Amino acid sequence: MSKNFFEIENASFTAGGKNKVNNVNLSIKNEGDIICLLGPSGIGKTTILRTIAGLEKLKNGKIVLKNKILSSKNNHIEPEDRNIALSFQENSLFPHYTVDKNINLGVERKLGKKRKISIRDIIKFLNLKKILNKYPHEISAGEAQRASLARSLISQPDLLLLDEPLSNVDQSFKEEIQVELKKILTNSKITTIIVTHDSYEAFYLGGKCGIILNGQLRQYDDPYNVYHFPNSIEVVNFLNRGILIPAKVTGEDSLENKDLGTIKGNFIKHYPKGSNVKLLLQPEDLEHDDKSNLKLEVVDRKFRGTNFIYTLRTDSKTLIPVFVHSHHIHQHEVDEKFGIKRPINIDHIVCF
Predict the structure, then answer these.
(1) Is residue 33 pLDDT above 70, yes or no?
(2) Number of helical H runs and strand E runs in the chain
(3) Are 24 and 49 in contact (CB under 8 A)?
(4) Which residue in 1, 147, 191, 310 has a CA-CA distance of 20 to 30 Å to 64?
(5) Longest Cα–Cα distance in the chain
């Protein structure tokens, strides 16, 4: 018997007869854990959710929930018998029911079952009270999405599947909902798989994140490791949180780049001395120092509230992002020189 609450084993997912994602192995260890799936549009993330819910057949492999096989090549449990709730990105409300009636369909599914979640609390945190008596065509896309999410939460499934649950929610309201959503899912121990294209959302909500690229689950790990220890150039490029620069390994803890000079730190993977590698350089890896003799040209500056991201150009025309706290007094303008602190030390050196 499986020790995991949920498992996907060697599964290939198809939609419309076409292969979308192949040979997926993924597990959720404990009831109440939350994981997120990240990837570009059209890669097959929604197909995975639809297959877990039973709306698509599994080509090969198997899907197991609470030691019960839901899908395999020779076995398929119907959607209504899986106790899985799927909340779609698009409006999935019944048009002839009010928002209140749509939400309470989730309650009707669980009559007689002890309720872990207060309906009142869900309506309050999703800000739905003012639209309960309206019909789907009378509300916005964001409101419809939140009503669909409320219905899914109230149904208290064994497994909750959320497809881009906050994509239509205003940015000013999104972070508040993220905090409350995580609190409700965690306190109620609702095991959840969230599909999103927003890496910040995935890193906050998910205890683990899966990166789906080119028809494969490329990496499945906790958010810190996905960000700081990406396992391939494809994952680096997808996350777009740094650049790769050429360097030569010069010792057990050092390498050399012609623009930045010597860089020291702990290699995640051993490379023989003299190896030519691509070094992952993330915005927080370099430190600003006005007094440094290593100065690069500012070509762009982005203000992010708590910080600035400066884009610097090296002598070899490489563009390097550098993080600076927004309280730093001396702000640099485009075309000015920007000092990089030496010696350069990076806690963990990731190379390819």
Answers:
(1) yes
(2) 8, 20
(3) no
(4) 147
(5) 72
